[in-house]
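Tutorial, part two.
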Amino acid sequence: MLKRINWGIIGCGNVTEVKSGPAFNKVSGSALKMVMRRDREKAASYAERHQVPQWTNKADELIQHPDINAIYIATPPGSHAEYAIRAMEAGKAVYVEKPMAATYKQAQRMLEVSKATQVPLFVAYYRRTLPGFLKVKELIDNGTIGQTLYVNMRLIRAARSYEKEAGADIWRLQPEHSGGGIFYDLASHQLDFLDYLFGPVKTVFGVAANRGGYYEVEDTVSASMQFKNGVVGNGLWSFVSHKNAEEDVIEIVGTQGKIKFSGFEHTPIVLYKDGEVMEYPYLNPENIQYNLIKQVVESLQGIGQCVSTGESAIRTNKVMQKIVQDFYG
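Running the prediction step on this input gives:
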């Protein structure tokens, strides 16, 4: 157990500007002490703007720093395993961005090292801690919609202009860095939350294709699954559709009602029951990862538990790999 958590960040890019970085200084017993980015000027700029005492462009300097006892890894997924393993072998607790790794095999290795070193490993699936998503869980757990029968999710959007550019240097479209295409980046949040609601997936199969031709990785994905608790699910993801077809919805249907909510737009949760329609707001914190970071800190201090660990997050990597495996051969 640690009394005070002194954080270092490896990869202080966009996700750390508002979503996560400032939260480390807002949690009691926690402080952001050092940041690392390979670009020296960007590392120095981040440290100055966020009043971080130290910065470096060398990961090992941060990992081995005696004042740092916990490390947040916010690089693309392809380097999560490398940095996480080095940090855990140095005895530093790890909080890593989602998805846990670019591949299931990499995630397995991370978990093996965590268990061997007895160093905690957490993953940034923060929807497990947001009020709106917790309201969905509450409605299901207390039987508001009766016995849950199935879940249907659709995430449809048009291709962005920068995604259409030939040879675009976008890590989310490079499997060695992201694990796959945009599906890996976005669907991981949805699939992890369903894991939180219903438990592990028992059976899953999927079809992935490239229909737009703007890049080489999958852009259209369909999947069917069944969770161990019996709930049946299906999903459709398209990142090259017409703008008029855009949709972000998850529907959970039970024997006594239905819940409808978004995965990313954070529009109100809607409950359909007994002929009535009720809405619940999301009420997100200013820094959207704050609630999860607070859980991580309290877990390291021995005064609480965290709902998103390497053991839970690895299941999402396994499910995504099964969905797209035929596309990648």
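The first helix runs from residue 40 to 49. In part three we will examine how such features are distributed along the chain.
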